[in-house]
Specification:
429 residues; alpha/beta; OB fold (Dihydrolipoamide Acetyltransferase, E2P); Rossmann fold; 5-stranded mixed beta barrel; 5-stranded parallel sheet
């Protein structure tokens, strides 16, 4: 059996190194994402570069890289000056690299320069993608369409308790003559955990929506990378679609205000929020000015109410005076008519009384004659008699018996007699 051709591992490594360094004798520009970065005590900067693919962001390529201390101060200083942020994990960079291969340490890249414009462009591309997606979803205008309550006093604050912007906001409100009820929902406002933390805080506010008039999302200034979480689609979608309150008799309605960063910063969160202001202090000033406007409106309304009431009272006084004059006139006329009527009655009353008395006298005389004509004495004078037995008038033959004494009363006296016999008259049928 013929001897198999072979080479040593060292020889293989030497050939790979020669092939790589021959193929990449000159520096090349490579875009990648920094997954890890560490500056050694010696001044050298060691990085782990990755390229991610798919929806889940799984690395599809990975390589070690180094920036020697002779280059690192220049490269890092220029990058931070241009982008406003230091080199850090999670940032995409465009690096000028020398390809190297070491027999013991393997494949690596030596970074000799970094183009900060690429990083800025990548951040802007992400920002534009978020804007386009929100517009495509139809939620871009939703929060701006939420009606702002006339009085905004119950405020939910999404910020970090240690943030300078939060302290500035509170101090500005404390200087005002108005009372605000502030409730802080603490959240990370920078770093990898910021997006998730802010979303959780907004969800917590939504669970208590009826307790607030508005939500304030604030933080202080920082680098563009610190503000990059406010360009993230998930956070901005929550801001844009922040729920409306349900009406339960409390005419209870709320919106989102933002005061993120400095004058030059305009995040997507600023764009989709109801009202975007420059700084946390500006947000507080806006709230104070709104309260001052409401106070001025109330003063104006009170003055208008006073003037309207005074005018109404004056009109009522004039009307009352007119009615009083009318009442005096009508009362005078009524009294005059009644006086004339009384005078007339006083004139006709005596004659009427005399006529009445004459008529009554005639009636009495007629009644007296009638009564006199029907008196027992008159009847007796006509020849009639009253028969009594035992003191009682006899009205029937059956009331007496033969031999019984009776008394007969006539016109001029009484006759005592005895009954001899009685006879009952029979009516003819």
């Amino acid at each position: 059996m013929a001897e198999t051709q072979h080479i040593t591992l060292r020889e293989l490594q030497r050939r790979v190194k020669a092939a790589l360094e021959g193929q990449f004798a000159l520096p090349v520009w490579v875009n990648a994402e920094i997954s890890e970065i560490k500056v050694n005590y010696s001044g050298h900067c060691y990085l782990e570069l990755v390229e991610k693919g798919g929806d889940n962001g799984v690395p599809t390529a990975q390589a070690r890289a180094v920036v020697w201390r002779s280059h690192y101060p220049r490269i890092s200083g220029y990058f931070e000056a241009e982008t406003g942020q230091p080199l850090a994990a999670g940032i995409k960079i465009l690096a000028k690299v020398l390809v190297s291969y070491h027999e013991l340490y393997g494949f690596s890249l030596q970074i000799t320069d970094i183009d900060p414009s690429y990083t800025l462009g990548d951040m802007e591309r992400q920002r534009q993608q978020t804007i386009a997606q929100l517009q495509q979803d139809g939620v871009w205008e939703m929060n701006r369409e939420v009606p702002m309550p006339a009085v905004v006093q119950r405020i939910a604050i999404v910020s970090s308790v240690n943030a300078a912007g939060y302290q500035d906001f509170c101090k500005e409100l404390d200087k005002s003559p108005y009372r605000f009820r502030l409730t802080l929902f603490d959240a990370f406002m920078q770093g990898e955990a910021a997006e998730e933390s802010i979303v959780e805080a907004l969800c917590a506010v939504a669970d208590r929506a009826e307790d607030f008039d508005a939500v304030v999302l604030i933080r202080g200034g920082g680098s563009r990378s610190d503000l990059n979480c406010f360009n993230a689609y998930r956070l901005c979608a929550h801001v844009a679609q922040f729920p409306l309150p349900i009406l339960t008799g409390l005419a209870v309605s709320y919106t989102i205000l933002t005061g993120i960063g400095h004058d030059k910063d305009t995040s997507v969160a600023d764009m989709v929020a109801h009202t975007a202001l420059k700084t946390p202090t500006a947000v507080a000033g806006w709230l104070v000015e709104r309260m001052a406007g409401i106070e001025g409106w109330l003063d104006s309304a009170a003055l208008q109410l006073h003037d309207t009431t005074a005018a109404a009272m004056h009109a009522s006084e004039v009307r009352l005076e007119r009615l009083s004059g009318e009442l005096r006139r009508l009362s005078g006329e009524l009294l005059t008519r009644q006086s004339l009527r009384l005078e007339h009655l006083a004139g006709v009353l005596p004659e009427a009384a005399r006529d009445f008395l004459a008529r009554q006298t005639t009636r009495l005389e007629n009644a007296a004659e009638l009564i006199a004509g029907r008196s027992p004495e008159r009847i007796l004078r006509l020849g009639f008699a009253v028969v009594r037995s035992g003191g009682r008038a006899v009205t029937s033959v059956r009331a007496v018996a033969a031999g019984e004494p009776i008394e007969v009363e006539v016109a001029d006296g009484k006759i005592s007699a005895t009954v001899n016999a009685e006879k009952i008259w029979q009516k003819k049928s």
